[in-house]
Amino acid sequence: MMTVAENKPxxxxxxxxxxxxxxxxxxxxxxxxxxxxxxxxxxLDRYGDLVWSxxxxxxxxxxxxxxxxxxxFIDIWGSSGRYDxxxxxxxxFISTIARRRLIDKIRAAERRPLMDSLDxxxxxxxxxxxxxxxxxxxxxxxxxxxxGAMDPEHQKVLSMSLYEGYSHSEIAERLSLPLGTVKTRVxxxxxxxxxxxxxxxxxxxxxxxxx
Amino acid sequence: xxxSNVRDNDRLAELLADEAxxxxxxxxxxxxxxxxxxxxxxxxxDFMRAAALxxxxxxxxxxxxASGQPSASRMPPGLKERIxxxxxxxxxxxxxxxxxxxxxxxxxxxSPVRTIGTATQASGAGRPRPxxxxxxxxxxxxxxxxxxxxxxxxxxxxxxxxxxxxxxARASLVDEATDVVTLPWAVPTAEGYRGVTGDVVWxxxxxQGYLRLANMPVNDPARVQYQxxxxxxDRDKHPVDGGVFNVSSTGEVxxxxxxxxxxxxxxxxxxxAEQPGGVVVSAGPLLVVAAS
Lengths: 211, 292
Fold this sequence. Notes:
The structure holds two protein chains of two kinds. By secondary structure, chain A is mainly α. Chain A has helices spanning 9-14, 28-33, 38-58, 62-79, 90-109, 132-135, 138-148, 152-163, 168-175, 179-202, 206-210. By secondary structure, chain B is α+β, with helices and mostly antiparallel strands. Chains A and B meet through α3, α4, α5, α7 and α8 of A and α1, α3 and α4 of B.
């Protein structure tokens, strides 16, 4: 039986058939939306490393990454009134805003995301572990399961596109695949993930997905 | 559902997947906007959410010790403190007039992120109120933009000086483009700007436009520059930076709009005065506004 704890809205969503397990405790984003300034620091403590890691995957320059992270969090707080725990987890809500904002940054700068390792991290402290915030997120777990069940070649294309930041043409060149094949694999992969996430929203199949 | 609807939905899914994977071509944007309008899709964010969660999932895999890949770094502590200060101020402003007002937080350490605005500006005291009331389009857009600016604008810096030949280029755009929209400036309420007249022309298909301004106060570029903001709620709740510019004459000047991001459905254009080079976060006030 899943344990419902504060700031695990995805777990709540997946448990919607058992309302007795729900709690009325406000999540961090709900508290921000309500004007609770103390939730701002909590939000940064909980999700700051995640957003920073996502930004550093896309922006080599630390100064650019700092700009981006600041923009993302201002956006998150400004959008907190739209957050609905029944639709998405906080991790999903925050990472979606972060991704959209980072893509905007890349387009504006007309450059591609970081495509190599983070070895040039300019002495920033290293996080040796995995934050429980993300590790416990049910939606991330669903997507991990979906990705794990994919054909390895398809998963590789998705990883290069969504995580490593290669353009479709760069993926085609590196994997010696036709450009159309790369586009199709990325599109189908995203459509499949979206479908599985939407299925989970109904609450019917999520438990099965999670095994 | 008929065959046309199926084709529309399939194509929409393709384009949204491209958008979520940072692969959407600029030329595909009008088609995406058109499909979104036609299908009234309520799932605009679904693909971005799927991509974002996949990105997080891949990040998780990479961070597990068994992956052998480098770990990700922690957010720099100084950055966290700066963002926290700004976030608390933004949350206070979101709470509205009943909230305890306090000056915008000072940036305590040198930062590449430029935040401008005195405490007075940040608290909204200097922000102009629409004289036409919130029910008029211009008044509403001005009020809405002011509200968004109060939260803090997140934009991309843009350099957009006035270019020679802009008048001819504007005339050419108006003559050649079939979808040019002309928006007159609303009567400004800001002190020193009440005599400003002119308009904005914008072509959605060409993603080009021009400001025409008369009686705009001359700025000292070493001290202040004007900055254009484009309100495009279909794209984002944050206005898009339309470039910084100077006015060297109170006569008529034509300024090309230089939006770095594709514009989908502009609802208003507004000008603020900022520090040289423009800003990424502005506290206003709005000096001149044109709204659809």
